[in-house]
Every structure is written in structure tokens, then in C-alpha cells.
Amino acid sequence: MAGQEDPVQREIHQDWANREYIEVTTSSIKKIADFLNSFDMSCRSRLATLNEKLTALERRIEYIEARVTKGETLT
Amino acid sequence: MPLVKRSIEPRHLCRGAVPDGVTSELECVTNSTLAAIIKQLGSLSRHAEDIFGELFNEANSFYMRMNNLQERVDILAVKVTQLDSTVEEVSLQDINMRKAFKSSTIQDQQVVSRTSVPNPVVEMYHRCDKPPPLNILSTYRDDKKDALKFYTDPSYFFMLWKEKMLQATEDKRKEKRRQKEQHKQVEDPGREVKKVRKARNRRQEWNMMAYDKEFRPDTRLTPSPYHGMSSEGSLSPDNRSVASDMGELSYPSSPNHPSQPPSAPHPIDGVPHLTQTPQTQSLDRGGYPRPNLPSGVVAGGRHIASLGRTQLPHAPPASSEGGALNGPRQQSVKDYRAYGGQPSAIPEYFTPPAPPPPPPLIPSAQTAFDSTSSSSPILPPGAVVVMSRPYSPSPTPPAPPANYVPSPSHTPSGAPPAAPPPPPPGLPPSHILPLAHAIGGEAPATRKGQMPMIPISDARSDLLAAIRRGVLPISNARSELLAAIRRGIQLRKVQEQREQEAKREPVGNDVATILSRRIAVEYSESDSDSGGEDNGEWSD
């Protein structure tokens, strides 16, 4: 009986080892995916903030340009 | 449940079937699982690249904007250092006249549309089931519509809203036009005057805007020039109304008379001509034909003045009928009198002082009748008389009125009046325009002695030719007008559809433009309402 156990047991042991390896790999993949999502989200939020600041700056610069340059008169 | 944007492809690692004929199944499963893991890593890396690409693109756009801003800031910095308050020209008027600052109000449009769909979603969309290929049937449709649109149309709701908005703008425009027309109908006579006023107003407004509130000149002064205009305007419609009354019966040659004098004087025997528009039909009114010198009369200066002398006594009774028009005409009579109504044999053409709306040649005809009663007592009211003899007032004044009154009353019946008083000696025959004959002049002409007949026929032919020449341009003008009107109507029918399409073309599939157009129509409506009210105030 020990002889029968060995190959099967060895296989099962091996299988368990493989599965653990696979499990580790897939969890890493999931972590990578998670990281990518959160990176994407945070990047987008920061870029949106940047966008707001840029538009505010653009409007201010437009106003200052209008103040500084000699504009056209109505008639 | 949120839509999954990116999904890593082999979802289940070890669910595939184990192929037959394999002894070590566990290893087989392990190997397939590992292969699936590798595929998953592959899709994961693809998704990661996609994510970073999107982020990079956005960051890049911000980088470009930032660079632009940086350049503008640099330019501004340089400009600000160059600013010098001493050099700067500042005039109080210029401050108010400067174009007001308007920030760029660009609205983001089409934010969530087909073009802005991210790539993974596009891929997912393509992996979905397609709608049935109903487009094959489009060629068999009669109305040339897209067959698939009846099954599924992504732009359906937008088109619906667009049609609704355009319809609303059109309705508002029509309402505006109706209101304007109502205003027009209410204040018809002064319409042209009003338009001129409005064109002037803008400049006045701008000039007012140049000053600050404290420095603006008194606005009460400005309406004064318009009062004069309104009063002048009030005269013309009266003139026109009276003239139109009198002109109803006028021959077409009446407006032509101003053109006649410029033509060579018709010197038949070197005689001045008095041409009158044959509005003498209106002479039928009893006692109306008091001779006011016709402002529309073209020929003869002094003769008319001389005629006016006899007419003046009759003028006052006529003035009651004539109204405002006769007033100026009487003045014109007096004016000509002032010129010295000496009878002269020299042919002169009479140019009326007042502007000649087709007028009241009736009075002129009357005057002619009165003065020439000796020679042409039976002259029909519409006769245009040509004075060829010097005027002797003394004997004639009593006679003409007596002759005159019966003549108009008789002419409608067609029977010539009673035998007119014999013409005073020395008075040359007068010429009667053929138009006058047309009324009924044949009979009276024949009744006169043989003497007047011969010269009258010559004059008649000449004058007839002249009048015909004069008539033609008028009729041509009228026919041209009619033709233009007809053409206009036809144009509308033919080009209605084209105009409709042309109106729709420049709209563009833009929510912002459509909405702005509608709002503009609404604002202009309110503006026109207030403007209309202002116009009403002005006209009053």
C-alpha cells in the first residue's frame, strides 16, 4: 500500500504545490489589476484638478490681456 | 451594476475539459491552468497599456495648454513692464466707448458621443450582437429613408428635439412678424418717417453712451427735430388722401404733366399752354370747381396768375371743400399773382410752386373754363384748356361763374349747356385737349362755331401725340410694377422649398447653436416689443 500511496500521494502533493503556485500567481495578477484600476482613477482625478486649474488660469489670463491691450471702440 | 470596461480574457483558469488519453490528469490541469494564467497576463498587459495611453493623452493635452498659458504669461509680463501710466491716453468718452470684455463662453459639446468612446468599450461594442441587417431593404423604399432607422435609430431623440426647437424658433419669429404688422397697421401713415428715425437713433445712443451719466446732454432736446418731421409727415398723408380722392377720376396722363413742359413749348401761334389733368370729372360736384390754381398744372406762369385773379373770389368758397390742400394752392395762386399777372402773349410755362400730387386740376380746369368761357363755354369739365390769349379780367368775371355753374351740371347729362355768351372780340380760340373731348367734348366742340374747330383739331392732334407719349411711360411703369408683383408671387411659389431648405442648412447638429438661436429669437422678440413701444412713443 505504501507503494501505491507514493506516486498518488506524490502527485497530489505536487498538485497541491502547483495549485498554490497558481493561486499565488493569480492573486498577484489580481493585485496588478487592482493597482492599475486605482492608478487610473487617481490619475484621472489629479488630471481633472489640473484641468480645472488650467481653465481658471486661462480665463484670468484672458481678462488680464483684455485689460492690458488697447481694445477697439464701438464706433 | 457598473459596466466592466476591461476584462481579462480567460476568465476561468481551470474549467477547460481534460482531453482524453492523458494519464496524469492533475498535471494536465495544472499545465492548462498555467497557460491560462499566461493568457491572462497578456490581456492584463494590454489593458495596462491602454490605461496608461489614455492617461498619457490627457496629460499631454494639459501639457500643451500649459505651454500656451506659459507663453501668454510671458508676453503679458513683458507688456506689463512696458505699461506706462503717463503715456496712456485716457479720455472719459473712450472709457465708455470701449468694447465690453466678454470672456470666451465656449461650451463643451458632444462630450459623451460616439467619437469619445474609449477603445475597450468600442471593442466590447463590436463583440456584441449586431442588429438585423435591415439596411438591405433601404433600396426598395419609396421615400428613400434608411430602413434600419425604423428599427433602431441612435439619433432619433436628438432629431426629435432639434425639430421641436426649430419649430419653436419659427413660431416665435412669426409671432414677432405679426406683432410688427399690427404695429404697422396701427401707425400706418408715419411709417416711412419712423424707419428713418430708427436709423438715426443708434448713433445718438452711442453718442450718449460716450458720456457718463452726469455729462449727458438733456435728452428732452433730442425729440425736437422729430417733431418737425412728424408734422411734415402729417401733411403728406393729408395731401395724399385728398389727392387720391381727386385722382380717382383722373386720366393717366395726369402725372405726365410735369414732363410736358420740359418738352418743347407747343407754340401754336406762340401761345402759352395751360395743361390740366382731366380730373374735371370731379367738377361735377356743384360749386366745387372753384379755381385754385392747380399745383399740378404745368404750363404757363403769368396766365395762371392772371387766371388766379378771377379765381380768387371763388377760391374762398372752394377752400371749405378743398381743405388743407386748397390752402396752399390758394397761396400759390397769390404767389403767381405776385409775379405780376400781366397778360402776355409770350408763351410761358407755368411751374406750380407746390409739389404736384396729381391734383386738383379740377380747379385749374375750372379756372380755364372761367377765363375761356367766352370761347369755349361748353368745355366739358375734364377739358384741358390751352390759353392762348391775353387775359382781360374785367368783362369776364361775371360771365364765367354764370356759365360755369350750369356747365358742370349739364355735362353729365351730355347735353350742352345753354348757348354760352358770345366770346369777347379779339379773343383767339382756345385749344382743347383731346382728352377733354373724350369725356364728351365732341358734342360741345361741334357746337362751337366753325372758327375754333380748325385750329383745335391741329392742336388736338399735337396734344394727343404728346399725351400719348406721356401716357405710355406711366402705363409702362404700372405694367412693370404689376409684372414685378406677379414675378414676386411666382418666385415665392417656386422657391419656397428651396428657401426652407436653405434656412435649415446653416443650423448644424449642435445643441448649443440651436439653443442659442432660439434664445436669440426670444430676446429679439422682447427687444422688438420694447422697441415698438418706443417707436409708438416717438410717433406720438
TrEMBL record, chain A:
Its predominant location is cytoplasm
What does the entry give for GO biological process? actin filament organization; cell motility; regulation of actin polymerization or depolymerization
Q: Which GO terms describe its molecular function?
A: protein-containing complex binding
Record keywords: Transferase included?
A: no
Where does it localize? Cytoplasm, Cytoskeleton
Q: Which GO terms describe its cellular component?
A: cytoskeleton; SCAR complex
Q: Which UniProt keywords apply?
A: Coiled coil, Cytoplasm, Cytoskeleton
Family, as annotated: Belongs to the BRK1 family.
- Stated name of the protein: Protein BRICK1
Name the source organism.
Oncorhynchus mykiss
UniProtKB/TrEMBL annotation, chain B:
According to its UniProt entry, one GO biological process term is: actin cytoskeleton organization
Q: Name one GO molecular function term.
A: actin binding
Record's keyword annotation contains Repeat: no
| Gene Ontology, cellular component aspect | cytoskeleton; lamellipodium; SCAR complex
Q: Its principal location?
A: cytoplasm
Per UniProt, residues of the WH2 domain are 477-494
Composition bias, Polar residues: 231-242, 274-283, 364-377
Segments of skewed composition (Pro residues): 350-362, 392-403, 414-428
Q: Where is the composition biased (Basic and acidic residues)?
A: 182-193
Asked whether the keyword Disulfide bond is assigned, the reply is: no
**CDD domains the UniProt entry points to:** WH2_WAVE-3
**What is its subcellular localisation?**
Cytoplasm, Cytoskeleton
Tell me the domain of life. Answer: Eukaryota
| Keyword field | Actin-binding, Cytoplasm, Cytoskeleton, Phosphoprotein
Q: Which Gene3D superfamilies match?
A: 1.20.5.340, 6.10.280.150
User: Where are the annotated segments for Disordered?
Assistant: 171-450
Comp. bias (Low complexity): 404-413
What is the similarity comment for this entry?
A: Belongs to the SCAR/WAVE family.
Oligomeric state and partners?
Answer: Binds actin and the Arp2/3 complex.
**Function, in words:** Downstream effector molecule involved in the transmission of signals from tyrosine kinase receptors and small GTPases to the actin cytoskeleton. Promotes formation of actin filaments. Part of the WAVE complex that regulates lamellipodia formation. The WAVE complex regulates actin filament reorganization via its interaction with the Arp2/3 complex.
What is the protein's name according to its record?
Answer: Wiskott-Aldrich syndrome protein family member
List the gene name: zgc:109889
